[in-house]
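Quick question, first post here. What does this chain look like in 3D?
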Amino acid sequence: MLGIGVRPSRHTLNIMINCLCIQGKLKEADRLFREMDSKGFEPDVVSYNSLLNGFCKMGMLKEARVLLAEMVEMGALPSQATYNILICGYCRVGRVNEALAVRKLMVRNNVLPNNVTYNTLISGLCKEGRAREAFALRDEMTHWRFLPNTVTYNSLINGLFESGNSVEAFKQYDEMVNKGVELNQATYSILIKGLCKEGKMDAANRFVRKMLERGFGPRAVVCNTLIDGYCKIGNMVDAFRVLDEMVRSGLSVDVCTYSVIINRLCKEGKLDQADRLFRKLLDKGLVLDEVVYSTLIDAHFKADDDKGALKLWNEMAQKNILPNVGTYSAFINGLCKGGFTKMARTVLNEMLERGLIPSSPIFNMVIRRYCKDGNLEKAFELHNQMVENSFELDSSTYSVLINGLSMEGMVDKAAKLFHMLVNKGAPVDDTIYNTLINSHCRKGDVEAALKLFSEMEVKGIKSGVVTYNALISGFCNVGKIEEAYRLIYRMIENGIALNSITYEILMRGHCKTGGREEALKLHCKFSTEGLEPNLNVYNILIERLCKEGDMQKAKSLFREMLERGLSPNHMTHTALINGQCMEQKMNLKGKVTHFNEAREMVSVPGTTSNQEIKAGSNNLVSTSQGRQHGKVNGYLCQSHQCR
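> Answer (accepted):
Ran it through. C-alpha coordinates below.
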Protein backbone atom coordinates (compact mmCIF):
# COMPACT_ATOMS: atom_id res chain seq x y z
CA MET A 1 0.00 0.00 0.00
CA LEU A 2 2.74 2.40 1.01
CA GLY A 3 4.63 1.53 -2.16
CA ILE A 4 1.80 2.91 -4.33
CA GLY A 5 1.28 5.95 -2.14
CA VAL A 6 -1.82 4.71 -0.32
CA ARG A 7 -1.82 5.50 3.40
CA PRO A 8 -3.39 2.72 5.50
CA SER A 9 -6.27 3.69 7.79
CA ARG A 10 -6.65 2.71 11.44
CA HIS A 11 -9.30 0.22 10.31
CA THR A 12 -6.83 -1.38 7.87
CA LEU A 13 -4.12 -1.63 10.55
CA ASN A 14 -6.60 -3.22 12.98
CA ILE A 15 -7.53 -5.83 10.36
CA MET A 16 -3.84 -6.59 9.79
CA ILE A 17 -3.17 -6.92 13.55
CA ASN A 18 -6.15 -9.26 13.89
CA CYS A 19 -5.03 -11.41 10.92
CA LEU A 20 -1.51 -11.74 12.33
CA CYS A 21 -2.97 -12.80 15.70
CA ILE A 22 -5.20 -15.41 14.02
CA GLN A 23 -2.08 -16.82 12.32
CA GLY A 24 -0.30 -16.96 15.70
CA LYS A 25 2.26 -14.35 14.62
CA LEU A 26 2.13 -12.45 17.90
CA LYS A 27 5.54 -10.80 17.59
CA GLU A 28 4.65 -9.30 14.20
CA ALA A 29 1.21 -8.26 15.49
CA ASP A 30 2.74 -6.58 18.54
CA ARG A 31 5.33 -4.79 16.37
CA LEU A 32 2.63 -3.44 14.04
CA PHE A 33 0.57 -2.37 17.06
CA ARG A 34 3.58 -0.43 18.43
CA GLU A 35 4.14 1.22 15.03
CA MET A 36 0.60 2.66 14.83
CA ASP A 37 1.72 5.93 16.48
CA SER A 38 4.43 6.44 13.85
CA LYS A 39 1.76 5.99 11.14
CA GLY A 40 -0.33 8.76 12.70
CA PHE A 41 -2.89 6.64 14.57
CA GLU A 42 -3.42 5.95 18.25
CA PRO A 43 -4.51 2.38 18.98
CA ASP A 44 -8.23 2.24 19.78
CA VAL A 45 -10.28 -0.33 21.69
CA VAL A 46 -10.44 -2.57 18.60
CA SER A 47 -6.62 -2.49 18.26
CA TYR A 48 -6.16 -3.44 21.91
CA ASN A 49 -8.86 -6.13 21.79
CA SER A 50 -7.32 -7.76 18.70
CA LEU A 51 -3.87 -8.04 20.31
CA LEU A 52 -5.37 -8.98 23.67
CA ASN A 53 -7.33 -11.81 22.02
CA GLY A 54 -4.15 -13.03 20.33
CA PHE A 55 -2.26 -13.13 23.63
CA CYS A 56 -5.11 -14.95 25.41
CA LYS A 57 -5.50 -17.59 22.69
CA MET A 58 -1.79 -18.37 22.95
CA GLY A 59 -2.03 -18.54 26.74
CA MET A 60 0.16 -15.45 27.17
CA LEU A 61 -1.94 -14.17 30.05
CA LYS A 62 0.81 -12.20 31.77
CA GLU A 63 1.28 -10.17 28.57
CA ALA A 64 -2.49 -9.78 28.30
CA ARG A 65 -2.76 -8.26 31.79
CA VAL A 66 0.15 -5.89 31.07
CA LEU A 67 -1.61 -4.80 27.84
CA LEU A 68 -4.88 -4.22 29.73
CA ALA A 69 -3.08 -1.98 32.25
CA GLU A 70 -1.44 -0.08 29.36
CA MET A 71 -4.84 0.28 27.69
CA VAL A 72 -6.32 1.96 30.78
CA GLU A 73 -3.25 4.16 31.21
CA MET A 74 -3.51 5.38 27.59
CA GLY A 75 -7.15 6.34 28.10
CA ALA A 76 -8.69 3.60 25.93
CA LEU A 77 -11.50 2.37 28.16
CA PRO A 78 -11.87 -1.45 28.19
CA SER A 79 -15.18 -2.57 26.70
CA GLN A 80 -17.43 -5.50 27.49
CA ALA A 81 -15.60 -7.42 24.75
CA THR A 82 -12.21 -6.59 26.34
CA TYR A 83 -13.15 -8.17 29.66
CA ASN A 84 -14.84 -11.14 27.97
CA ILE A 85 -11.64 -11.85 26.02
CA LEU A 86 -9.64 -11.99 29.28
CA ILE A 87 -12.28 -14.10 31.04
CA CYS A 88 -12.29 -16.56 28.13
CA GLY A 89 -8.47 -16.66 28.15
CA TYR A 90 -8.34 -17.59 31.84
CA CYS A 91 -11.14 -20.17 31.56
CA ARG A 92 -9.44 -21.77 28.56
CA VAL A 93 -6.41 -22.73 30.70
CA GLY A 94 -8.47 -23.66 33.76
CA ARG A 95 -7.73 -20.51 35.78
CA VAL A 96 -11.35 -19.85 36.66
CA ASN A 97 -10.67 -18.01 39.92
CA GLU A 98 -8.74 -15.36 37.98
CA ALA A 99 -11.54 -15.22 35.41
CA LEU A 100 -13.99 -14.53 38.25
CA ALA A 101 -11.66 -11.79 39.53
CA VAL A 102 -11.77 -10.14 36.06
CA ARG A 103 -15.57 -10.18 36.22
CA LYS A 104 -15.42 -8.35 39.57
CA LEU A 105 -13.06 -5.80 38.01
CA MET A 106 -15.50 -5.46 35.12
CA VAL A 107 -18.42 -4.62 37.43
CA ARG A 108 -16.25 -2.28 39.53
CA ASN A 109 -15.46 -0.32 36.37
CA ASN A 110 -19.20 -0.02 35.58
CA VAL A 111 -19.10 -2.41 32.63
CA LEU A 112 -22.02 -4.84 32.80
CA PRO A 113 -21.48 -8.54 32.10
CA ASN A 114 -23.56 -10.10 29.32
CA ASN A 115 -24.62 -13.60 28.27
CA VAL A 116 -21.14 -14.31 26.88
CA THR A 117 -19.55 -13.37 30.23
CA TYR A 118 -21.87 -15.60 32.24
CA ASN A 119 -21.81 -18.53 29.81
CA THR A 120 -18.01 -18.52 29.65
CA LEU A 121 -17.72 -18.53 33.46
CA ILE A 122 -20.44 -21.16 33.90
CA SER A 123 -18.70 -23.41 31.36
CA GLY A 124 -15.33 -22.89 33.12
CA LEU A 125 -16.77 -23.70 36.55
CA CYS A 126 -18.54 -26.81 35.22
CA LYS A 127 -15.31 -28.09 33.67
CA GLU A 128 -13.67 -27.81 37.10
CA GLY A 129 -16.54 -29.69 38.75
CA ARG A 130 -17.76 -26.57 40.58
CA ALA A 131 -21.45 -27.07 39.74
CA ARG A 132 -22.78 -25.24 42.80
CA GLU A 133 -20.93 -22.05 41.88
CA ALA A 134 -22.05 -22.44 38.26
CA PHE A 135 -25.70 -22.59 39.35
CA ALA A 136 -25.19 -19.55 41.60
CA LEU A 137 -23.96 -17.63 38.54
CA ARG A 138 -26.93 -18.89 36.52
CA ASP A 139 -29.24 -17.50 39.24
CA GLU A 140 -27.37 -14.19 39.24
CA MET A 141 -27.67 -14.12 35.46
CA THR A 142 -31.45 -14.50 35.75
CA HIS A 143 -31.55 -11.77 38.43
CA TRP A 144 -29.99 -9.32 35.95
CA ARG A 145 -32.62 -10.38 33.38
CA PHE A 146 -30.21 -12.30 31.17
CA LEU A 147 -32.10 -15.42 30.12
CA PRO A 148 -30.13 -18.68 30.25
CA ASN A 149 -29.89 -19.95 26.67
CA THR A 150 -28.94 -23.19 24.95
CA VAL A 151 -25.22 -22.61 25.65
CA THR A 152 -25.94 -22.07 29.37
CA TYR A 153 -27.97 -25.26 29.73
CA ASN A 154 -25.52 -27.31 27.65
CA SER A 155 -22.66 -26.26 29.96
CA LEU A 156 -24.66 -27.09 33.10
CA ILE A 157 -25.88 -30.47 31.79
CA ASN A 158 -22.37 -31.43 30.67
CA GLY A 159 -20.90 -30.36 34.03
CA LEU A 160 -23.46 -32.40 35.96
CA PHE A 161 -22.81 -35.50 33.85
CA GLU A 162 -19.04 -35.07 34.31
CA SER A 163 -19.51 -34.91 38.10
CA GLY A 164 -21.66 -38.07 37.99
CA ASN A 165 -24.96 -36.33 38.78
CA SER A 166 -27.09 -37.60 35.90
CA VAL A 167 -30.37 -37.14 37.84
CA GLU A 168 -29.82 -33.37 38.12
CA ALA A 169 -28.57 -33.29 34.51
CA PHE A 170 -31.92 -34.62 33.29
CA LYS A 171 -33.78 -32.14 35.50
CA GLN A 172 -31.97 -29.38 33.61
CA TYR A 173 -32.88 -31.07 30.32
CA ASP A 174 -36.57 -31.17 31.37
CA GLU A 175 -36.36 -27.49 32.36
CA MET A 176 -34.98 -26.67 28.89
CA VAL A 177 -37.90 -28.43 27.24
CA ASN A 178 -40.54 -26.88 29.56
CA LYS A 179 -39.17 -23.35 29.08
CA GLY A 180 -38.97 -23.76 25.32
CA VAL A 181 -35.19 -23.34 25.18
CA GLU A 182 -33.94 -24.65 21.86
CA LEU A 183 -32.24 -28.04 21.91
CA ASN A 184 -29.41 -28.18 19.38
CA GLN A 185 -27.22 -31.00 18.17
CA ALA A 186 -24.70 -30.24 20.93
CA THR A 187 -27.45 -30.80 23.55
CA TYR A 188 -28.18 -34.27 22.19
CA SER A 189 -24.47 -35.07 21.90
CA ILE A 190 -23.96 -34.13 25.57
CA LEU A 191 -26.92 -36.29 26.70
CA ILE A 192 -25.78 -39.25 24.60
CA LYS A 193 -22.21 -38.90 25.90
CA GLY A 194 -23.43 -38.73 29.52
CA LEU A 195 -25.55 -41.86 29.13
CA CYS A 196 -22.75 -43.75 27.36
CA LYS A 197 -20.37 -42.78 30.17
CA GLU A 198 -22.75 -44.51 32.61
CA GLY A 199 -23.12 -47.54 30.34
CA LYS A 200 -26.83 -46.83 29.68
CA MET A 201 -26.67 -47.72 26.02
CA ASP A 202 -30.42 -48.34 25.46
CA ALA A 203 -31.22 -44.85 26.77
CA ALA A 204 -28.39 -43.38 24.69
CA ASN A 205 -29.83 -44.99 21.54
CA ARG A 206 -33.28 -43.55 22.35
CA PHE A 207 -31.76 -40.06 22.33
CA VAL A 208 -29.99 -40.85 19.06
CA ARG A 209 -33.43 -41.62 17.55
CA LYS A 210 -34.87 -38.38 19.01
CA MET A 211 -31.97 -36.45 17.52
CA LEU A 212 -32.63 -37.96 14.08
CA GLU A 213 -36.38 -37.22 14.40
CA ARG A 214 -35.54 -33.57 15.06
CA GLY A 215 -33.74 -33.45 11.73
CA PHE A 216 -30.21 -33.56 13.04
CA GLY A 217 -28.29 -35.95 10.83
CA PRO A 218 -25.97 -38.59 12.24
CA ARG A 219 -22.50 -37.24 13.01
CA ALA A 220 -19.24 -39.09 13.37
CA VAL A 221 -18.75 -37.61 16.87
CA VAL A 222 -22.02 -39.19 18.11
CA CYS A 223 -21.14 -42.54 16.54
CA ASN A 224 -17.72 -42.37 18.17
CA THR A 225 -19.43 -41.74 21.52
CA LEU A 226 -21.62 -44.83 21.01
CA ILE A 227 -18.60 -46.92 20.06
CA ASP A 228 -16.82 -45.74 23.22
CA GLY A 229 -19.92 -46.55 25.31
CA TYR A 230 -20.12 -50.09 23.95
CA CYS A 231 -16.38 -50.55 24.45
CA LYS A 232 -16.70 -49.44 28.09
CA ILE A 233 -19.21 -52.18 28.88
CA GLY A 234 -17.11 -54.71 26.96
CA ASN A 235 -19.59 -55.05 24.09
CA MET A 236 -17.15 -54.99 21.19
CA VAL A 237 -19.72 -56.67 18.89
CA ASP A 238 -22.04 -53.63 19.01
CA ALA A 239 -19.05 -51.29 18.89
CA PHE A 240 -18.01 -52.77 15.54
CA ARG A 241 -21.68 -52.85 14.43
CA VAL A 242 -21.83 -49.06 14.84
CA LEU A 243 -18.54 -48.83 12.96
CA ASP A 244 -20.06 -50.83 10.07
CA GLU A 245 -23.17 -48.59 10.09
CA MET A 246 -20.93 -45.54 9.84
CA VAL A 247 -19.32 -46.97 6.71
CA ARG A 248 -22.70 -47.87 5.16
CA SER A 249 -24.08 -44.38 5.93
CA GLY A 250 -21.14 -42.76 4.21
CA LEU A 251 -19.89 -41.17 7.42
CA SER A 252 -16.20 -40.55 7.58
CA VAL A 253 -14.54 -43.26 9.65
CA ASP A 254 -11.57 -41.20 10.62
CA VAL A 255 -8.74 -41.37 13.08
CA CYS A 256 -11.11 -40.27 15.91
CA THR A 257 -13.21 -43.41 15.45
CA TYR A 258 -10.23 -45.74 15.67
CA SER A 259 -8.78 -43.61 18.47
CA VAL A 260 -11.85 -44.47 20.59
CA ILE A 261 -11.32 -48.22 20.06
CA ILE A 262 -7.55 -48.04 20.70
CA ASN A 263 -8.19 -45.99 23.84
CA ARG A 264 -10.64 -48.55 25.19
CA LEU A 265 -8.31 -51.48 24.45
CA CYS A 266 -5.53 -49.67 26.32
CA LYS A 267 -7.77 -48.96 29.32
CA GLU A 268 -8.72 -52.63 29.50
CA GLY A 269 -5.05 -53.59 29.52
CA LYS A 270 -5.21 -55.13 26.04
CA LEU A 271 -2.10 -53.31 24.87
CA ASP A 272 -1.04 -56.01 22.40
CA GLN A 273 -4.39 -55.76 20.59
CA ALA A 274 -4.18 -51.96 20.59
CA ASP A 275 -0.66 -52.10 19.13
CA ARG A 276 -1.73 -54.56 16.43
CA LEU A 277 -4.67 -52.37 15.39
CA PHE A 278 -2.41 -49.31 15.42
CA ARG A 279 0.16 -50.95 13.12
CA LYS A 280 -2.59 -52.35 10.86
CA LEU A 281 -4.02 -48.84 10.38
CA LEU A 282 -0.56 -47.46 9.59
CA ASP A 283 -0.03 -50.24 7.02
CA LYS A 284 -3.34 -49.19 5.39
CA GLY A 285 -1.93 -45.70 4.99
CA LEU A 286 -4.17 -44.02 7.57
CA VAL A 287 -2.49 -40.95 9.06
CA LEU A 288 -2.88 -41.26 12.83
CA ASP A 289 -2.78 -38.13 14.96
CA GLU A 290 -1.22 -37.04 18.26
CA VAL A 291 -4.30 -38.21 20.22
CA VAL A 292 -3.72 -41.85 19.25
CA TYR A 293 0.00 -41.54 19.99
CA SER A 294 -0.80 -39.94 23.38
CA THR A 295 -3.05 -42.87 24.29
CA LEU A 296 -0.45 -45.48 23.33
CA ILE A 297 2.48 -43.65 24.94
CA ASP A 298 0.54 -43.43 28.21
CA ALA A 299 -0.45 -47.12 28.00
CA HIS A 300 3.14 -48.26 27.35
CA PHE A 301 4.43 -46.27 30.31
CA LYS A 302 1.70 -47.73 32.54
CA ALA A 303 2.71 -51.21 31.38
CA ASP A 304 6.33 -50.40 32.41
CA ASP A 305 7.35 -50.50 28.77
CA ASP A 306 9.50 -47.34 28.74
CA LYS A 307 11.24 -48.40 25.52
CA GLY A 308 7.92 -48.80 23.70
CA ALA A 309 6.79 -45.33 24.84
CA LEU A 310 10.09 -43.72 23.78
CA LYS A 311 9.88 -45.47 20.40
CA LEU A 312 6.41 -43.99 19.79
CA TRP A 313 7.61 -40.52 20.84
CA ASN A 314 10.51 -40.68 18.39
CA GLU A 315 8.18 -42.00 15.69
CA MET A 316 6.01 -38.89 16.13
CA ALA A 317 9.05 -36.67 15.61
CA GLN A 318 10.07 -38.58 12.47
CA LYS A 319 6.56 -38.16 11.01
CA ASN A 320 6.37 -34.47 12.01
CA ILE A 321 3.33 -35.12 14.21
CA LEU A 322 3.32 -32.30 16.75
CA PRO A 323 2.44 -33.35 20.31
CA ASN A 324 -0.45 -31.55 21.99
CA VAL A 325 -0.77 -30.71 25.71
CA GLY A 326 -2.19 -34.21 26.37
CA THR A 327 0.74 -35.90 24.62
CA TYR A 328 3.27 -33.84 26.55
CA SER A 329 1.42 -34.55 29.80
CA ALA A 330 1.42 -38.33 29.21
CA PHE A 331 5.07 -38.36 28.13
CA ILE A 332 6.36 -36.14 30.97
CA ASN A 333 4.36 -38.15 33.51
CA GLY A 334 5.84 -41.42 32.22
CA LEU A 335 9.37 -40.01 32.19
CA CYS A 336 9.02 -38.72 35.75
CA LYS A 337 7.69 -42.04 37.04
CA GLY A 338 10.51 -43.85 35.27
CA GLY A 339 13.13 -41.57 36.80
CA PHE A 340 14.12 -39.83 33.53
CA THR A 341 14.16 -36.43 35.22
CA LYS A 342 16.56 -34.64 32.89
CA MET A 343 14.64 -35.72 29.79
CA ALA A 344 11.32 -34.74 31.42
CA ARG A 345 12.64 -31.21 32.02
CA THR A 346 13.92 -30.99 28.43
CA VAL A 347 10.49 -32.00 27.09
CA LEU A 348 8.79 -29.46 29.40
CA ASN A 349 11.09 -26.73 28.05
CA GLU A 350 10.27 -27.81 24.47
CA MET A 351 6.58 -27.51 25.29
CA LEU A 352 7.07 -23.95 26.59
CA GLU A 353 9.16 -22.97 23.55
CA ARG A 354 6.28 -24.06 21.32
CA GLY A 355 3.97 -21.67 23.16
CA LEU A 356 1.89 -24.43 24.74
CA ILE A 357 0.77 -23.72 28.29
CA PRO A 358 1.37 -26.61 30.71
CA SER A 359 -1.22 -27.02 33.43
CA SER A 360 -0.07 -26.98 37.05
CA PRO A 361 -0.26 -30.84 37.27
CA ILE A 362 2.40 -31.07 34.51
CA PHE A 363 4.74 -28.74 36.41
CA ASN A 364 3.96 -30.65 39.60
CA MET A 365 5.04 -33.94 37.98
CA VAL A 366 8.54 -32.57 37.34
CA ILE A 367 8.76 -30.79 40.72
CA ARG A 368 7.71 -34.04 42.45
CA ARG A 369 10.39 -35.96 40.55
CA TYR A 370 13.07 -33.43 41.51
CA CYS A 371 11.99 -33.75 45.16
CA LYS A 372 12.06 -37.55 44.93
CA ASP A 373 15.59 -37.32 43.53
CA GLY A 374 16.53 -35.05 46.45
CA ASN A 375 17.24 -32.19 44.03
CA LEU A 376 15.36 -29.44 45.87
CA GLU A 377 17.37 -26.71 44.18
CA LYS A 378 15.95 -27.67 40.77
CA ALA A 379 12.46 -28.13 42.26
CA PHE A 380 12.41 -24.58 43.62
CA GLU A 381 14.02 -23.25 40.43
CA LEU A 382 11.07 -24.62 38.44
CA HIS A 383 8.63 -23.22 41.03
CA ASN A 384 10.21 -19.79 40.63
CA GLN A 385 9.89 -20.06 36.85
CA MET A 386 6.17 -20.75 37.29
CA VAL A 387 5.79 -17.64 39.46
CA GLU A 388 7.81 -15.39 37.12
CA ASN A 389 5.73 -16.44 34.10
CA SER A 390 2.36 -16.19 35.89
CA PHE A 391 1.65 -19.91 35.54
CA GLU A 392 -1.00 -21.15 37.93
CA LEU A 393 0.26 -22.70 41.16
CA ASP A 394 -2.20 -24.87 43.05
CA SER A 395 -2.16 -26.39 46.53
CA SER A 396 -0.55 -29.56 45.12
CA THR A 397 2.50 -27.56 43.99
CA TYR A 398 3.21 -26.37 47.53
CA SER A 399 2.23 -29.74 49.02
CA VAL A 400 4.91 -31.39 46.85
CA LEU A 401 7.54 -28.79 47.85
CA ILE A 402 6.68 -29.04 51.57
CA ASN A 403 6.86 -32.83 51.36
CA GLY A 404 10.19 -32.61 49.48
CA LEU A 405 11.72 -30.42 52.19
CA SER A 406 10.39 -32.76 54.89
CA MET A 407 11.77 -35.88 53.23
CA GLU A 408 15.20 -34.25 53.21
CA GLY A 409 14.90 -33.64 56.95
CA MET A 410 14.17 -29.92 56.56
CA VAL A 411 10.83 -29.86 58.40
CA ASP A 412 11.55 -26.41 59.83
CA LYS A 413 11.99 -25.00 56.32
CA ALA A 414 8.81 -26.80 55.24
CA ALA A 415 6.95 -25.13 58.13
CA LYS A 416 8.48 -21.77 57.17
CA LEU A 417 7.19 -22.16 53.58
CA PHE A 418 3.76 -23.09 54.95
CA HIS A 419 3.57 -20.01 57.19
CA MET A 420 4.75 -17.81 54.32
CA LEU A 421 1.77 -19.05 52.27
CA VAL A 422 -0.62 -18.39 55.16
CA ASN A 423 0.76 -14.87 55.72
CA LYS A 424 0.41 -14.06 52.01
CA GLY A 425 -3.24 -15.08 52.15
CA ALA A 426 -2.70 -17.91 49.67
CA PRO A 427 -5.43 -20.60 49.74
CA VAL A 428 -4.13 -23.36 52.01
CA ASP A 429 -6.24 -26.51 51.84
CA ASP A 430 -6.33 -29.88 53.60
CA THR A 431 -3.71 -31.30 51.18
CA ILE A 432 -1.05 -28.84 52.40
CA TYR A 433 -2.06 -29.23 56.07
CA ASN A 434 -1.97 -33.04 55.78
CA THR A 435 1.48 -32.93 54.20
CA LEU A 436 2.93 -30.78 56.99
CA ILE A 437 1.12 -32.71 59.75
CA ASN A 438 2.58 -35.94 58.33
CA SER A 439 6.05 -34.34 58.20
CA HIS A 440 5.92 -33.31 61.88
CA CYS A 441 4.66 -36.78 62.84
CA ARG A 442 7.50 -38.50 60.96
CA LYS A 443 9.92 -36.27 62.86
CA GLY A 444 8.24 -37.27 66.14
CA ASP A 445 6.91 -33.79 66.86
CA VAL A 446 3.27 -34.72 67.48
CA GLU A 447 2.64 -31.51 69.45
CA ALA A 448 3.37 -29.38 66.37
CA ALA A 449 1.14 -31.70 64.32
CA LEU A 450 -1.73 -31.35 66.81
CA LYS A 451 -1.37 -27.56 66.71
CA LEU A 452 -1.87 -27.64 62.93
CA PHE A 453 -4.80 -30.02 63.36
CA SER A 454 -6.48 -27.53 65.74
CA GLU A 455 -5.74 -24.72 63.26
CA MET A 456 -7.58 -26.67 60.57
CA GLU A 457 -10.65 -26.91 62.79
CA VAL A 458 -10.59 -23.18 63.60
CA LYS A 459 -10.39 -22.31 59.89
CA GLY A 460 -13.18 -24.72 59.01
CA ILE A 461 -10.91 -26.91 56.87
CA LYS A 462 -12.33 -30.40 56.90
CA SER A 463 -10.01 -33.11 58.21
CA GLY A 464 -10.51 -36.59 56.82
CA VAL A 465 -9.10 -40.07 57.24
CA VAL A 466 -5.72 -38.96 55.76
CA THR A 467 -5.31 -36.32 58.50
CA TYR A 468 -6.24 -38.72 61.29
CA ASN A 469 -4.03 -41.51 59.94
CA ALA A 470 -1.02 -39.17 59.96
CA LEU A 471 -1.67 -38.19 63.61
CA ILE A 472 -2.39 -41.76 64.71
CA SER A 473 0.86 -42.88 63.06
CA GLY A 474 2.72 -40.08 64.85
CA PHE A 475 1.44 -41.17 68.26
CA CYS A 476 2.10 -44.85 67.54
CA ASN A 477 5.67 -44.07 66.46
CA VAL A 478 6.40 -42.42 69.81
CA GLY A 479 4.69 -45.26 71.70
CA LYS A 480 1.59 -43.30 72.77
CA ILE A 481 -1.04 -45.89 71.85
CA GLU A 482 -3.70 -44.48 74.21
CA GLU A 483 -3.55 -41.07 72.53
CA ALA A 484 -3.84 -42.82 69.16
CA TYR A 485 -7.06 -44.50 70.32
CA ARG A 486 -8.47 -41.19 71.53
CA LEU A 487 -8.16 -40.00 67.95
CA ILE A 488 -9.87 -43.20 66.76
CA TYR A 489 -12.88 -42.46 68.98
CA ARG A 490 -12.91 -38.88 67.69
CA MET A 491 -12.92 -40.17 64.09
CA ILE A 492 -15.92 -42.39 64.82
CA GLU A 493 -17.77 -39.52 66.55
CA ASN A 494 -17.21 -37.35 63.45
CA GLY A 495 -18.50 -40.07 61.15
CA ILE A 496 -15.11 -40.74 59.52
CA ALA A 497 -14.70 -44.42 58.63
CA LEU A 498 -11.46 -46.20 59.52
CA ASN A 499 -9.71 -47.63 56.45
CA SER A 500 -7.18 -50.44 56.03
CA ILE A 501 -4.30 -47.97 56.52
CA THR A 502 -5.73 -46.95 59.93
CA TYR A 503 -5.75 -50.59 61.08
CA GLU A 504 -2.28 -51.17 59.64
CA ILE A 505 -0.90 -48.18 61.59
CA LEU A 506 -2.48 -49.41 64.84
CA MET A 507 -1.16 -52.94 64.30
CA ARG A 508 2.33 -51.58 63.71
CA GLY A 509 2.01 -49.49 66.87
CA HIS A 510 0.93 -52.50 68.96
CA CYS A 511 3.68 -54.71 67.54
CA LYS A 512 6.25 -52.02 68.29
CA THR A 513 5.18 -51.88 71.95
CA GLY A 514 4.80 -55.66 72.30
CA GLY A 515 0.99 -55.73 72.06
CA ARG A 516 0.83 -58.84 69.93
CA GLU A 517 -2.68 -59.95 70.96
CA GLU A 518 -4.15 -56.51 70.26
CA ALA A 519 -2.50 -56.58 66.82
CA LEU A 520 -4.01 -60.00 66.06
CA LYS A 521 -7.46 -58.78 67.13
CA LEU A 522 -7.11 -55.88 64.70
CA HIS A 523 -6.20 -58.38 61.98
CA CYS A 524 -9.56 -60.10 62.58
CA LYS A 525 -11.25 -56.70 62.26
CA PHE A 526 -10.34 -56.60 58.57
CA SER A 527 -12.87 -59.32 57.75
CA THR A 528 -15.65 -57.93 59.96
CA GLU A 529 -15.19 -54.43 58.47
CA GLY A 530 -15.12 -55.74 54.90
CA LEU A 531 -11.48 -54.70 54.36
CA GLU A 532 -8.73 -56.65 52.64
CA PRO A 533 -5.44 -56.97 54.55
CA ASN A 534 -2.45 -56.20 52.33
CA LEU A 535 1.11 -57.51 52.30
CA ASN A 536 2.28 -54.89 54.81
CA VAL A 537 -0.30 -56.09 57.36
CA TYR A 538 0.91 -59.69 57.09
CA ASN A 539 4.58 -58.68 57.22
CA ILE A 540 4.00 -56.66 60.42
CA LEU A 541 2.33 -59.63 62.16
CA ILE A 542 4.69 -62.32 60.82
CA GLU A 543 7.75 -60.32 61.90
CA ARG A 544 6.33 -59.80 65.42
CA LEU A 545 5.36 -63.47 65.80
CA CYS A 546 8.76 -64.62 64.55
CA LYS A 547 10.54 -62.35 67.00
CA GLU A 548 8.45 -63.85 69.81
CA GLY A 549 9.22 -67.38 68.59
CA ASP A 550 5.62 -68.29 67.66
CA MET A 551 6.54 -69.89 64.34
CA GLN A 552 3.38 -71.98 64.16
CA LYS A 553 1.17 -68.89 64.12
CA ALA A 554 3.58 -67.05 61.82
CA LYS A 555 3.49 -69.87 59.25
CA SER A 556 -0.29 -70.06 59.55
CA LEU A 557 -0.52 -66.38 58.63
CA PHE A 558 1.98 -66.98 55.83
CA ARG A 559 -0.29 -69.67 54.34
CA GLU A 560 -3.35 -67.44 54.77
CA MET A 561 -1.51 -64.69 52.91
CA LEU A 562 -0.77 -67.01 49.99
CA GLU A 563 -4.40 -68.18 49.89
CA ARG A 564 -5.45 -64.52 49.50
CA GLY A 565 -3.23 -64.30 46.42
CA LEU A 566 -0.66 -61.99 48.04
CA SER A 567 2.96 -62.41 46.98
CA PRO A 568 5.54 -62.56 49.81
CA ASN A 569 8.56 -60.30 49.45
CA HIS A 570 12.06 -60.30 50.94
CA MET A 571 10.74 -58.85 54.23
CA THR A 572 8.39 -61.82 54.63
CA HIS A 573 11.12 -64.37 54.01
CA THR A 574 13.71 -62.56 56.12
CA ALA A 575 11.27 -62.58 59.07
CA LEU A 576 10.58 -66.33 58.66
CA ILE A 577 14.27 -67.23 58.23
CA ASN A 578 15.24 -65.23 61.30
CA GLY A 579 12.34 -66.69 63.28
CA GLN A 580 13.41 -70.25 62.59
CA CYS A 581 16.99 -69.37 63.46
CA MET A 582 15.84 -68.08 66.84
CA GLU A 583 13.57 -71.04 67.55
CA GLN A 584 15.75 -73.92 66.41
CA LYS A 585 19.22 -72.39 66.52
CA MET A 586 19.35 -73.54 62.92
CA ASN A 587 22.73 -74.11 61.32
CA LEU A 588 23.63 -72.67 57.95
CA LYS A 589 22.35 -75.76 56.14
CA GLY A 590 18.89 -75.30 57.71
CA LYS A 591 18.81 -71.65 56.70
CA VAL A 592 19.75 -72.52 53.15
CA THR A 593 16.94 -75.11 53.12
CA HIS A 594 14.37 -72.46 54.06
CA PHE A 595 15.86 -70.07 51.55
CA ASN A 596 15.60 -72.67 48.78
CA GLU A 597 11.96 -73.30 49.73
CA ALA A 598 11.36 -69.59 49.33
CA ARG A 599 13.12 -69.59 45.97
CA GLU A 600 10.78 -72.33 44.70
CA MET A 601 7.90 -69.91 45.08
CA VAL A 602 9.32 -67.83 42.23
CA SER A 603 8.04 -70.45 39.79
CA VAL A 604 4.47 -69.78 40.98
CA PRO A 605 2.88 -67.00 38.86
CA GLY A 606 2.30 -63.77 40.77
CA THR A 607 4.65 -64.53 43.67
CA THR A 608 7.93 -63.11 44.83
CA SER A 609 10.58 -62.08 42.31
CA ASN A 610 14.13 -63.47 42.31
CA GLN A 611 15.43 -60.05 43.38
CA GLU A 612 13.23 -60.04 46.47
CA ILE A 613 14.20 -63.58 47.42
CA LYS A 614 17.88 -62.67 47.01
CA ALA A 615 17.37 -59.68 49.29
CA GLY A 616 16.16 -62.06 51.98
CA SER A 617 19.36 -64.10 51.64
CA ASN A 618 21.59 -61.30 52.96
CA ASN A 619 21.22 -62.79 56.46
CA LEU A 620 22.77 -66.04 55.25
CA VAL A 621 25.92 -64.30 54.09
CA SER A 622 26.57 -62.67 57.46
CA THR A 623 25.91 -66.01 59.21
CA SER A 624 28.31 -67.95 57.01
CA GLN A 625 31.02 -65.41 57.81
CA GLY A 626 30.23 -65.88 61.52
CA ARG A 627 30.74 -69.65 61.23
CA GLN A 628 34.42 -69.11 60.67
CA HIS A 629 34.59 -68.18 64.38
CA GLY A 630 32.48 -71.12 65.56
CA LYS A 631 28.82 -72.11 65.82
CA VAL A 632 28.12 -69.94 68.88
CA ASN A 633 29.39 -66.77 67.23
CA GLY A 634 27.33 -67.60 64.13
CA TYR A 635 24.14 -67.95 66.18
CA LEU A 636 24.79 -64.76 68.16
CA CYS A 637 25.28 -62.85 64.92
CA GLN A 638 21.94 -64.05 63.59
CA SER A 639 20.04 -63.60 66.86
CA HIS A 640 21.31 -60.03 67.11
CA GLN A 641 19.65 -59.33 63.77
CA CYS A 642 16.43 -60.88 65.03
CA ARG A 643 16.32 -58.41 67.90
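Confidence is low (pLDDT under 50) at residues 1-5, 601-643.
Residues 92 and 607 are 47 Å apart (CA to CA).
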